[in-house]
Amino acid sequence: MSSAPSESPSGPSHDLPVLNWTHRLTQLGPRFFTLLQPTPMAAPSWAACNQTLRAELDWPKELFDDEHLLAFAGNALMVGSQPLATVYSGHQFGQWAGQLGDGRAIWLGEAESSQGPQEIQLKGAGRTPYSRGGDGRAVLRSSIREYLCSEAMHGLGIPTTRALSLVASPEPVRRETVESAAVVSRVAPSFLRFGHFEHFAAQGDTDSLRALADHALAHHLPECRTRAALWQGNVYAALLDEVQERTAKLLAQWQAVGFCHGVMNTDNMSLLGLTIDYGPFQFMDGFDPGHICNHSDHQGRYAYGRQPNVAYWNLYCLAQALAPLIDDQEMTLQVLQGYKTLFPRYLGDAMRAKLGLVGDLAPESEREADWTLVEDLMQLMAAEKLDFTVFWRQLSQSVVQQSAASALTDVGWSAVTDRVLDRPRLLAWLARYTERAGQSHFAAMGQQMLRTNPKFVLRNHLAEIAIRQAKTGDFSEIETLHNLLKSPFDEHPGFDAYADLPPDWAGQLEISCSS
C-alpha cells in the first residue's frame, strides 16, 4: 500500500478506503513510469463532482465527501492507490519532440467498476520527472474546459476520457498571467497513447516495446487476438488494425459535430480511440473547413479540415513504432490502407445520419449520390459561414414540421432558408434532398435527425462564462452546463439561450496550448 504525504496545507492527510484498486500497469516495471507522490495544494474546495459518472461506475457516494476532497486535490491518498507518472515521447506539430511523459498528470491506479477496471489520473497534481521545467499544475480555466468538454463528448456518444471531479484552489499559477490552480480527475479504461510506443521504438528498446504491446493486447484490446486471423496470425498487425479503425471512427464523429481538437500531436492520440487531452478545442460556430481553433497553431496544421489527414499521419508514426514487432513492412502498409477506406465510409455514414438517411433509407447503392448531396450542402454552409450546430438542428426541426404538412412549401423551410443570402441555392438543394428522401419518410427522418444533430454543444463562450463565474467562487454554471451537455439532444425547456448563436464577443476569444 502506498503511503500518503505526511502533511498538507489543509491539515493532516488520511488513508481513505473506498475503491478497490489494481495496478496492472506497474507490472511492466520501472522503465515505463516513475513512482511519486502528488504535490499538495492550498485550501482545496470542490468545484464540481460528477455524480452521473460515479453512479454509472457504481462507485460509492462517499467518494465525494470532505475527506475525499483531499484525495482528489492530491493532498492525501486513498488506500491501495499507487501514484506514478508514465514516460512517453512523440511528435508535436509534425516534429519529433523526444521524451515527453506525464508532465502534470499523476496516475493513481485502476479502480474496479461496473464497467471494468478504470484508470484514474489527477491532472494538475504537481511536478513529475517529465514536467520539462514546468510546475506540473493546471489552471482553473483549462480544467473547467476539460471537465465540461469530456462530459459533453460523452453526451454526444463520442469516445472520450471522462471527468470525475474538479477541485479548485486559490494557489497562484503563472501562465501568461497569474491564475489559480485546479485539479481535474479523469477516468478511462487506459490512458495509453501513441507516444508510449514511440518512446521505446525511438530508443531501440524492442523488449520494452513488446512488453507494452502485450500489456495492451492482454488488458485493453483482447479482440486483436481474433483479428489476427486477418493478418496471418500477426497480433501486432492486428493491434495496429484495431487502432486505425477506432481512430477512423473517432475522426468521423469529430468531423460530423464540427469538433476541432486543436493539438493532435502523437502524444495526444489514444490507443483506444478516445478523445484525450482537451486543450485548445472548439466546437465550430460558423462553418469553415479551414478553421484553426488553436492560436498557437500558426501554420494551421490542426485546422478542422486537416484533422482526418493528421490522424492518418499519426497512425503512420504509430506504425513505424510497431514495425519491429510486426516485422513485415508490406503488411504494415496494408494495415494502414484500412484508414483510407474506413474513414470516408464512417464519415459518410455519420453525415447520412445527420440527414436522417439511415437503415432502409440508406442503401449501399445510394452511398455515392448521398455523399454528393452532403458535399454540396457543406459547400453552401462554408460559403455562407452558417452556424454548424444551429443549422443542422434547424434543418432537423424543419423536416419534422414538413412531415406534418399536407404539401411541401418553401415557407416550410424558412427556418433554414432565412439564414442564407443565396436562398435559391439552398432551395434547389432542399428540392434534391426531398426527392431523394421522400416526404412520406420525413416523420421518421426528422426524429432520427433530432437524435443525431445536437441542440447543445460546449461553445467557447459558454465555457468562458462558466470560467468567469468560477473565478469569483461561483461554480453553479459548471453544473448547469454539465446537466445540459450530458443530454445534448433533448430540448431542455427554459434553456434555449444556451443553444443560441454566439454573441459578438465570442469571436474575440483566443484559445491556445497554455494551460
Annotation keywords:
about 525 residues, alpha+beta, 3 domains, 7-stranded antiparallel sheet, two-stranded parallel ribbon, globular
Summarize the structure.
This protein has 515 residues and is an alpha+beta fold. The protein is 41% helix and 13% strand.
How would you describe what is shown here?
With about 525 residues, the chain is an alpha+beta fold. It has three domains: about 180 residues, no CATH class; about 130 residues, no CATH class; about 90 residues, no CATH class. It is about 40% helix and about 15% strand. It is built from 16 helices and 15 strands. The strands form five sheets. Strands 2, 4, 9, 10, 11, 12 and 13 form a seven-stranded antiparallel beta sheet that branches. The chain has a two-stranded parallel sheet with strand order 1-5. A hairpin with a 3-residue loop joins strand 12 and strand 13. Helix 10 runs antiparallel to helix 13 and helix 15 runs antiparallel to helix 16. The radius of gyration is 24 Å and the shape is globular. The N terminus is likely disordered.
